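Two proteins were folded this term; both appear here.
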Amino acid sequence: MDVMQAIRERRSIRKYRADPIREEALHAIFEAARWAPSWGNTQCLRLVVVQDQATKSKLAETLRSTRPEGKNGATEAVRNAPVVLVACAERRLSGYNRSGDKQGTPATDKGEWWFMFDLGLAMQNVTLAAHALGLGTVHVGRCCQSAKWDTFGTEHFGIVKRCEQAPSGPDCSLCGG
């Protein structure tokens, strides 16, 4: 499948078969994320793979709704996907001056939020690669930022704890597939 075909045909999928995702497919998806462009090649993306049912259910509960009935349409997708990828950013890398007398300060008026561009680029690669491999995804961005990520336990979120560099916690989005 060429890239233009993948862009035109990819759709957000919210209902998944229970079939496990092959390890080779996951590695191909990670490779696609790794090749995404980033500010100064800082590669701030950190992906956490979640396959544990209890953890997926806890993640699903962090989703906020935009619907009058109070339910996020992706809640069941996150709960029932064979794999959920949590995309986190190592903060204070993307969009920051890396040398000189301004080292460690934001380089643009976007402040520390430049990492959101990098995560968006990487997650687009993830969804297109998954589609090319015959896998469905939905990108979920309505996670409750006040969720206590550390309550999920280090056995599943050790990577999130390691990439956390600010007291406000990691910035994450979800992608079920």
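Next, the second protein.
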Amino acid sequence: MLWIAGKAVHGTKMKTTTAHQMILGTGLRLSPRGGFRNGPFAASGQTDACRGLLESLRDTGTPTVDRRHEPGDLICGGGDYGGALYLVLEGVTKLSVIRSEASEAILRLAGPWELIGVPVPGWKPSRLTWVEAFTACEVVKVPRMFVERAVRENPDVALKLTELLELELARREELFGCLLPRTTEARLARLIPILARQFGVARDGGWIIELRLTHYDLAEMVASTRESVTAAVNSFRRRGVLEKKAGIIFILKPEELAVTAAP
């Protein structure tokens, strides 16, 4: 669907799924005392900033393209990453770097009302950076030249984009922190609360990450091996910290994750 001057061409304005937004992106973060709390980039601020940016772009007549993708579809890559602004409306996308023909490093997962491929002046992304649909998703694309024009013509667009870039830097700094511990178990103990904040929902006194993640996916997020992740997950299970069934993670003792993640 193409949007020009705030109007949909050959279609109608899409409706976002409120219930989905409530589940994916709850703004939760692991507290040192156990449980979860609001993080530095809670969902409400992120969602408001993204909505505001999209509205400002369309108000200025900036062309945008809305597309639906199925799991595994390539959204951008091979040098295209960074050539446009992409805003996730529904579903989950995966940002990764290809290390070899049979290996990749997952940099992060982006859910509803998150930006990917933010065009920054003077920045040339690696041709090995790819963005795929991790689940069925809906993504808005704004080509780089139109983003730059909107920034020049509308200060509000520049301010909202700067706010979102600050949130993105904070998010990446937190994700990089998952790689600091030496053990896979400690790395997972830092990663799982981040995933719970993005994709978790409280249920029966615990938390469920409603996203199917394989041990391979987790390994590529923490720069480890599938075998090491399996051993770490089994250790968490024996201690009653979490359960994992059909890719779904059930967090039973978040305070134990905080202890394991501590430096």
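The longest strand covers residues 93-100. The CA atoms of residues 30 and 193 lie 5 Å apart. These notes refer to the second protein only.
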